[in-house]
Amino acid sequence: MWWLQQPKEAQDSVFGPQIIRIKLKGALGIFSERMTYFVERVWCHPTFDWIILENAYKAVGLEFPFHYRMPRDLRTIVDEAGVDVYGDYENDGIAHNALDDCKFQVKYTVDCLKKLRVK
């Protein structure tokens, strides 16, 4: 339902005809193989993305492969740096497009790190 409230461009980036679709269980299996091998921390919103991911594993009968201490959140660094993400920065891409959101987060995270380094 959340996706239905997002801009058409964002919906198309996830559900458009160019997207290759695979079954959720297969996708989570591939995700588990890659992520648990390469990643010690998962950057996400622990109260949103993490819960959705955990429930997806439960829905298809797979064990959630991540430890509860793994999620990390950009909001901590943003708060410590005193940055107003949505007031001081403009997202040049499509909101809720994964790649555009990532670029936006990188932009303000770099500034946060610079500010914290000065303190």
Number of helices, counting only DSSP H or I runs of 4 residues or more: 6
Average predicted confidence as pLDDT: 88
As residue ranges, the low-confidence spans are none
- Main-sheet strand order equals 1-2
What does the main sheet amount to?
2 strands, parallel
- Helix proportion range: 55-70%
- Distance linking N and C termini: 42 Å
Total domain count: 2
Strand percentage, roughly?
A: under 5%
Helix and strand content put the structural class at mainly alpha
Radius of gyration (CA) equals 16 Å
Number of strands: 2
Summarize the helix and strand pattern as letters: HHEHEHHH
What multimeric state do the chains show?
A: single chain
What is the general shape?
globular
Strand and helix layout:
Elements: H1 8-15, H2 24-38, E1 42-43, H3 49-59, E2 71-72, H4 74-81, H5 85-88, H6 98-118
Parallel strand pairs: 1-2
Helix pairs in contact: 4-6
Compact summary:
By secondary structure, this protein is mainly α. The chain is 56% helix and 3% strand.
Can you tell me about this structure?
- With 119 residues, this protein is mainly α.
- Helix 4 (74-81) packs across helix 6 (98-118).
- It has helices at residues 8-15, 24-38, 49-59, 74-81, 85-88, 98-118, and strands at residues 42-43, 71-72.
- The radius of gyration is 16 Å and the shape is globular.
- It is built from 6 helices and 2 strands.
- It folds into 2 domains: 19-72, no CATH class; 73-119, no CATH class.
- It has a two-stranded parallel ribbon with strand order 1-2.
- The protein is 56% helix and 3% strand.
